[in-house]
Amino acid sequence: MTTIASYIDHTLLKQDASAEDILALAGEAKKYQFKSVCVNPVWVPTVAEALAGTDVLTCSVIGFPFGATLPQVKAFEAAEAIKAGAQEIDMVIDIAAAKRGDRAALVNDISTVVKAVHAGGAILKVIIETAMLDDDAKVLACQASVEAGADFVKTSTGFGGGGATVEDVTLMRQTVGPKMGVKASGGVRSLQDAQAFIEAGATRLGASSGVAIVEGEQSSAAY
Questions:
Q1: What is the per-residue pLDDT across 109-118, written as a single tens digit (0 to 9) for each?
Q2: For 10, phi and psi rounded to 5 degrees?
Q3: Which has the closest alpha carbon to 37: 92, 91, 86, 93?
Q4: Dihedral of CA 147/150/153/158: which sign?
C-alpha cells in the first residue's frame, strides 16, 4: 500500500539550521520512511552520511531561493551537490525570464542544469515559484521544463511570498501531462492538505511538517 510518507520530501531550508536540526530531520525521515530529505547544499554530506544504508534519498536545492544565478553556475552547484551525495536536485528557474515570457532563456537555464544533473545520475525538479507568476507564465515555465528534459516541476521555494495551491498543481499537471512529476511545496501542513494536492495531480510533496502529516494518516487509519 502506498503511504503518504512515500510522497514527502522532508524539508529544512532555513539558513540558520544547525547540525543538530539536520540530524534530527534525517532521523525522522528514517523513522517514517519519507521519500527524501531536502536541505541546502552545505548539509548534503551530513544528510547523505546519516541516510546511508536506507531507502531515503538525499535532495538539495540549487540557485536557491531566487533563481537569479547564471545557468552554468547552477549547473556547477548541482554537480558539486551530487558529488557530495545528493540524488535529487531542486533548482529555481530564472523567474524574471518567466515573467517576461522568454522561453529561450528558460529552456537554456533549465537544460544547462538538466545536463549536469543527469550526468551525475540524479533527477531534477524545477521550481517555478508560482506565487510570483500569472497563469500564462506558469504554463510557459512548465512547458520549458518539459522541453529541457527535467523530471519534475515544483510549485514553490517557500521563500517567495506564497506556496502551493490546488489550482496551481492542477494547472501544472494539465500542462506537463501524465508522466512528468509534479511537486507541491509550501503550505503542505496536514494530511488533508497532502491528500488534496495528490488528488490534484501531485506526485511529490515538499513539507517541513512531514511528521504531522504522517501521524495524521496513521491516526485516521486507526478508526
A1: 999 999 999 9
A2: -75, 120
A3: 86
A4: negative
Q: Cβ contacts of residue 65 below 8 Å, gap of 6+?
A: 13, 92, 157, 158, 159, 160
The correct answer on CATH 3.20.20.70 for the domain covering 4-221 is yes
Query: Which triple of cell numbers denotes residue 159?
Result: 521563500
Output the pTM of the full model.
0.95
Tell me if residue 184 falls in helix, strand or coil.
strand
What's the full length of the chain, in residues?
Answer: 223
Question: Is 13 within 8 Å of 41 (Cβ atoms)?
Answer: no
103-127 burial, b at 16+ Cβ within 10 Å, e below that, comes to eebbbbbbbbbbbbbeebebbbbbb
Q: How far apart are CA 206 and CA 163, in angstroms?
A: 10
Sequence-ordered alpha helix ranges (H) in 84-223:
95-99, 103-119, 135-148, 166-176, 191-200, 210-221
The domain ranges of the chain are 4-221
Q: How many CB atoms lie under 10 A from the CB of residue 99?
A: 16
How far is residue 93 CA from its own chain's centroid?
12
What residues are annotated to the active site?
90, 154, 183
Q: Residues 92-127: pLDDT tens digits? A: 999 999 999 999 999 999 999 999 999 999 999 999
